[in-house]
Amino acid sequence: MHPLHNIIWQGLTTRQAHFAESCGEARRFPREVTLLSAFQEPSDQGYESLAELVGPGGTAALFLDEPHRPRRGWELIADPPLLQMVFASASIPAAPAEHSAIVDLGQSDSPEMVELATLTKPGPFASRTHELGTYLGIRRDRKLVAMAGERLKLPGHTEVSAVCTHPEHTGRGYAGILMTEAMRRILARGETPLLHVREDNVRAISLYEHLGFRTRVRLHLAVLRQI
What we know:
Blueprint: H1 7-13, E1 21-23, E2 26-28, E3 37-39, H2 44-54, E4 59-64, E5 74-78, E6 81-87, E7 102-105, H3 110-120, E8 135-140, E9 143-154, E10 157-165, H4 174-188, E11 192-198, H5 202-210, E12 213-226
Parallel strand pairs: 10-11
Antiparallel strand pairs: 1-2, 2-3, 4-12, 5-12, 6-11, 6-12, 7-8, 8-9, 9-10
């Protein structure tokens, strides 16, 4: 089995096991952290465990190898194809030119982080998502206009996530600046950066390839609600 197979499950059973809420064959992060959930296998028992875990009306976001197939008791909210990309360059990225503009983000910044993520939709983001790892930002006139951080963690790998820029501040290279610094910190710990991106986000994929990421596999982000 590839070390990045079933990555949410691996994170919740290894380096991020302290976040895990469990029931049978299913695991999930607390809702205030992220909607990401997983099971050992996409079997009837796996979905039954997940249903008990999230409860009536509960929502879960899964990474699946194939498009979601209809399941009794579940409503599919979204199923966008994703690319899982892994850093594959032989060299460590140089320090960003605007390194001094980068600030570390934390609990006090959470409302602004949620607001920016809600506006730009980089993926599931909640009030405690910042607890998953280091989050970095750039401010202009004291306003948070760009951010990137760490989400899934498993042995030897850390995911770069929530890469987003306010629409009024795009085209200034902020995503690349923050990505490069996040990658440098991950690599300094002896880990390999990875990320997930919607397959139709051509602009972001181009940036990630420029930074040394290569596509490993195509996945599907299935956002489900129990009915």
